[in-house]
Amino acid sequence: MGRSCIVTSSTLRITDSESSEGASHAAKCELAAEVVRSFGTLRFRVTGCSMLPSVWPGDVLLAHRQDIAKVSAGDIVLFTREGRLIAHRVVSTTGDPENPCLITRGDAQLALDSPVTAAELLGKVVFILRAGKQLEPRTRLRFPARLTADLVSRSGRLARVLVRLHALWQNLGEVKTP
């Protein structure tokens, strides 16, 4: 039985699969974590909804390797856990200098993630590439974005509708641009 890489909720998750491409996908997921550890930078495309409305499916995130001591509340970080790559916002940091940890959560998620250790942290998201534009991630959501994230966290159906509308809007923008 092979393994495959499935992209969901702003994460890359490795799961068992019967497909012949499974080993190739699993290697790609593991390679992504090694790339940022070795070279300091990783670009990856998001397909999940856990960070709506800050990060949309189709956005490309650019993460740079970052020491845990230099990460602050509000930053979007990339970390690895159980064979997955996860990009979520830092809610708080622990004050323990001996064993620093980050508390993270997807903007459109109700529950906090388990604390992120220095060993799990890969880097900080420094840019969001969307529709040909390079955006710096906000450290605080404005009221309309907070309201959208709260509504999306409570309704998967609303999330799907917003993602479809966003995709249509992006496609309209591409058609208008020569």
Structure write-up:
Mean pLDDT is about 85; it is low at about 1-20. Strands 1, 2, 3, 4, 5, 6, 7, 8, 9 and 10 form a 10-stranded antiparallel beta sheet that branches. The longest helix is centred in the C-terminal third of the chain and has 21 residues, at about 155-175. Helix 2 crosses helix 3 (about 155-175). This protein is of the alpha+beta class. Strand 5 (about 75-80) and strand 6 form a beta hairpin. It starts with a strand and ends with a helix. It has a single domain (about 1-175), classed as Umud Fragment, subunit A, CATH 2.10.109. It is built from 3 helices and 10 strands, in the order ββαββββββββαα.
Q: What is the structure about, briefly put?
A:
By secondary structure, this protein is of the alpha+beta class. The protein contains 3 helices and 10 strands; from the N terminus they run ββαββββββββαα. Strands 1, 2, 3, 4, 5, 6, 7, 8, 9 and 10 form a 10-stranded antiparallel sheet that branches.
